[in-house]
Each structure stands twice: as structure tokens, then as C-alpha cells.
Amino acid sequence: MRRLRLTPVALTLLTALTVAPAAAAPPVQTTEPAFLITLNEELGLVSFWNITREDFCAWEAGGFVGDPPVTDLIPGTEVETGKGALVARLSATADIEVWALDADADLSGPCQDTDDQAGPWGFGSMTWMVNDNDLDVSLTRTNAFGDRAHGVVFEVGTGAGWAFSWTFQATIDRDEVFVVRADNTVIRPIR
Questions:
Q1: Residue 47 is inside which H or E element, if any?
Q2: How far is Cα of residue 41 from the mean position of the Cα atoms in its chain?
Q3: I want to staple 98 with a disulfide (CB 3.0 to 4.6 A). Which of 88, 94, 116, 122 is the partner?
Q4: Distance between CA 181 and CA 164 in Å, rounded?
Q5: From CA 45, how far away is CA 62, in angstroms rounded?
Q6: CB contact at 8 A, 114 and 150
Q7: Please, are residues 88 and 77 in contact by the beta-carbon 8 Å criterion?
Q8: What's the rounded Cα separation, in Å, for the pair 112 and 106?
């Protein structure tokens, strides 16, 4: 599975929220225009979480001007540690659209690769949780980040239900070495 992640600043918010030292600032509550687009080449599906394909493609065609046209702002928290690392977390449940890839998709982008489709393959909702223990990659610590999600999508026409879930975790150490620790996706029919 290959994931295409497209979000603004919230895109980089990923895994392992840690306890901040005593000198850390108090948590700040935020709302972010976060969204997620994933591509599953094996199944030939592209998903749009917290943004519709129509709205994303119009935003793309307009040059990505302004905030993304998300369905909802996503609540989060940010905490600055005593050493200057910014720890962040987002979590929410939102609608998801799943589109089939075009037969001639060249994987150049989610809009171009689905523009021959008459409509979504399925609809549903998914809970997405994102954590990052050093959002700005301060290099004062190993940056551990990632996301996980779970939800259900129903096929248009048949009404068949599919359970979707994934986990992604990675680290960037003080020497800026990037390592993927986990990247698992499960898509299975609901019986």
C-alpha cells in the first residue's frame, strides 16, 4: 500500500505524545483544517477523509489558495517542552469518500487518477488519530510520529460493508535518519 498524504501543517502531525518536562508550557487547544488522502494501489482505491473529492479537486485547480475546504476543523493539542520540542496530537471522526482508480491511472494525483469515475465507490466514516512528539523536528530528541485510523465504508450500489484500518509510525533521530517503524493496512469485508 502506498499512502499519499495531503494536508497543510497538520499533515506532519504524527505519533507518540510524550510527557513534557516540568518546565514545559501548558497545553494549547487547537483546531486544524486537517484532511487525509490515501491511495491503495493493490485495491485500486483512493480515499478522501474530511474533504470531498469535488472540493479537494476544485481547491487544487485554484492553486491551493487559502485554507483547504475541509468538512470540519479537527481538534488538537500542542505542548512545547522545556527543550523546545513541539508535541502535537489530533483526533477526530469524519466522513470518508472512497473512489476507484481510473483504468489508465498514472498515479499523478488523486483528481487526475479518478476523473473518469461517475461517482464514489463508497462512503463511510473513519476515526483518525495523529501524534508527533517533535512537530518542528527540533533535533533535541528523536522525533517519533505516526497515525492510525479505523472505520467502515459501504459500497455504492451493493451496500456491502468494508472495515478499514491502518497504522503508520516512524522516527527521525538527532542525525536526521528517517526510519519507518510500522506501516500496516487492513481492508476486509464485514460479514
A1: strand 45-49
A2: 17
A3: 122
A4: 20
A5: 24
A6: no
A7: yes
A8: 8
16: its cell numbers: 507518540
- CA dist 73 and 33 (Å) reads 5
Closest CA relative to residue 185, chosen from 42, 6, 34, 14: 42
The pLDDT tens digits for 96-146 are: 999 999 999 999 999 999 999 999 999 999 999 999 999 999 988 999 999
Percent of the chain with pLDDT over 90: 73
| Rounded distance between C-alpha atoms, residue 146 and residue 176, angstroms | 16
63's torsion region: left (phi>0), alpha (psi -120 to 50) or beta?
left
State the Cα–Cα distance between residues 145 and 88, nearest whole angstrom: 9
**Running DSSP on this structure, what letter comes out for residue 179?**
E
Instruction: Say if residue 133 is exposed, middle or buried (CB neighbours under 10 Å; 0-12, 13-18, 19+).
Output: buried
Helices (H) and strands (E) in the chain — how many of each? 1, 9
CB count in 10 Å sphere of residue 19: 10
